[in-house]
Amino acid sequence: MAFTRAIGESTIDGLAYLGNLAGLTAGSARAVFIEPFRGRKLRLSRAVHQAMAIGVEAIPIVSLISFFVGTILALQGAYQLRKLGAMQLVADAVAIIVTRELGPLMTAIIVIGRSGSAFAAEIGTMKVNEELDALETMALDPVHFLVAPKFLAMALMMPCLTTWADFMGVCGGGAFGVFFAGFTWGSYFRATLHALMLRDIVTGLIKSVLFGFVITAVGCQEGLSTKLGPEEVGRATTSAVVKSIFLVIAVDLVFTALFYFTAPQ
Amino acid sequence: MIPASSAPTKNPASSNIAISVRNLRVNYGEREILHGISFDVSRGETLVILGGSGSGKSTLLRALAGLEQPSGGEIWIQGRNFVAMSERERDELRTKMAMSFQSGALFGSMTVGENVALPLRENTALDPSTIEIMVRLKLDQVGLAGFESYVPAQLSGGMKKRAAIARALAMDPEILFFDEPSAGLDPIIAAGIDELILKLKNAFQITILVVTHELASAFSIADRMILIDKGNIVANGTPEELRASHHPRVRQFLDRVPEPEISDEIDYLQMLTGETPPARH
User: Fold this and answer.
1) What is the 3-state secondary structure (H, E, C) of A217-233?
2) CB contact under 8 A, A130 and B65
3) Best label site of A59, A99, B217, B272, fewest CB within 10 Å?
4) pTM: predicted TM-score of the whole model, two decimal places
5) Which strands sit side by side in the sheet containing B80-81, from one edge to the other?
6) Is B49's Cβ below 8 Å from some Cβ in A?
């Protein structure tokens, strides 16, 4: 009995949490798309500031990790393909796996570590220091003021970062191809372009935007629900990272399945 | 002195009343913190809300500032029902009220000048050069002229409080709430904050509510005081009336008589809330 009750309670908690995430996303969408027409300012400068932190400052680490992942994929792919004497398919394998899956996913993981945790820490610290209360007493809605610019920045930056990660991943595969599989850079990129369809890149980019929403919603929700006490900020940050990784992978599974079953045969 | 149990007799819509609280109840989860309290604050009056730690005085202030949703009762601010109004109306009324928090609650990522400018930037259509002048003016009023470009981390405790007061003054509020304005400050700095509150009251006729447990500070700024104990008002009167009171809790508070020692958690919760503890199993 206690076991079934525990399952029931955690299911309800989980649904309530997803409800909170949806509420934050909807509130931010309202702040970005509807409120500006009702005379409330859209905080573009805050969004630009966030976009710099989320996107531009992440370029070095995204580049490096994507490059390495591309090389690793090429190595693993070649391990199998050389048994079949099909080393020329390394470029195809890397291109498809990077654009459809690992480019968006690795970017999301890096952004969780850099920005999702930072959202939780920033908003959590503000909560502990009564800054969120101060915003409310100034007639400023924390969702409108703090969360919406982050959503806007994330929606713009995730596809950009992912596109860059896709490119760097292909370059990483290319490095293996050129040095160990008899490609030239020209032939490697031609093989990549030949293997890719627009659908591969677009589905990856759609997923990256969804990952961005998940990361922002979870990071901000964990910050907003921080309890009082300085150690709680640390707990909120850890929780934001763990929950974001889980939810990003869950969303990835759902949408990858959706894209698979709706793909033209 | 007005007996604590009697409801205020003034009409909440009366033009001379800034804030009217009627039978206010606030819960944290299952536990009731404020047990139906009622009082009025006249325009331009400085009301000090006294009470021990956990008496419910900060909860009362947070409810008045709209940071806690009451579980019952009414709060009338300038003749309008603050509890029942829409979020938009509430935001409109909030631009006439301001709060100085115990910790200051300055935005750590902004300079002092940006902190003071924020409510002006967000809630008015003033151009940046006017806002800059107003920021300078407000910082000058609290004795922080020239500190615009400092970040809060570079300020001392007293300066943070002053900067927070400057931010609270930015929109020229008609009602100002102070949560423990002198907590954590040395007596000289605390006296300076008291003096600043008196100056604001005399210069701008702002209605001021101060929550504190510092008696010296309370008596130097109050027009009227209420003492809250276990979520109820036990005394409501002028500082002289409170000093002359024979109410046992008032005497205990003013004469600084310690509570009998608390031996367990249930007694502690009862001391805080005044509720009878549930039966132990």
Assistant:
1) HHHHHHHHCCCCCHHHH
2) no
3) A59
4) 0.85
5) B31-42, B17-28, B72-77, B80-81
6) no
